[in-house]
Amino acid sequence: MTPTLVRQHLPHSGAAPQVDQWARARDWAEIQERMLVPLYEAVYERLEVGSSTRLLGLGCGSGLALLMAAARGASVTGLQAHAPERLALARERLLPEARGTRARAGARLTDGEPTDIDDEAAAAYSLVTAFEPVGCVAGDSEGLTEALAAAGPVVGRGVPVVLAGWGPPERCATSSVLRVAAKLADPLRGAGSWRPALRDDLEEVAQRAGLRPDGSGRVACPFGYADVDNAVRGLLSTGLFDAAVAATDPDQVDKEMREAVHPYKRRDGTVWMPNVFRYLIART
Fold first, then answer.
1. d(CA 237, CA 8)
2. Which residues contact 207 (CB under 8 A, 6 or more apart)?
3. How far apart are CA 160 and CA 139, in angstroms?
4. Once rounded to an integer, what is the mean pLDDT over residues 246-258?
5. What is the CA radius of gyration of the chain?
6. Distance from C-alpha of 254 to C-alpha of 260, rounded to nearest angstrom
7. What 8-state DSSP symbol labels residue 170?
């Protein structure tokens, strides 16, 4: 739910929700981001990511996917614009010189877009990833399409690009909670409102970005939380509920989120929400 799980979507009208962005980024990194580990692992296994891989991560978020690729021996570069808190956490993970430990070999992190990559570095990339899932929020692929289109000419022809998206709503338990966000944000309805994922969402993004589809897959990515409080914090960290908070108030959003999560609470107090995500491999 990225990079990173979902893109940060603020309402297009009304006051922006007042939230502690540093606390939100920490919740993302410590609670929510790990939910997509099965997706990262499946993609890296299929594409045989290893020491010969030079990976460019678009929307790298707090850097977990890059860290996993680096652990396989890959040289990684992460781009993340407009999310300094998440990028700071990625630097802690991948460039931890300040703590007296060694940085991951070949790791680079940039607050910017594909057009900010210098020509010499761009020529070396053998894989581009965009792991921020699309397909549950209206208009959530617009910025991604632009980034992908900009990355294509930079990295050259024939390079694989991985896109990620939500699976069918009937196979994603989290869809029922995301509907709460759409309902509460109704006065701000439009861009940023929940919608069910469609079968060809990723193919349409690839087509608009000038990419050629070259394979796909589905991966089970259950959301597991220690308790309901943990689930609410994790889901809020995605940014998908910001419009609802702006339209109502944090207490109302919290109350209705807890009610939506309750059916997935197990007898031991943990929360388990089965989900399926999809990935598309395309070529520049």
1. 9
2. none
3. 24
4. 91
5. 18
6. 10
7. G
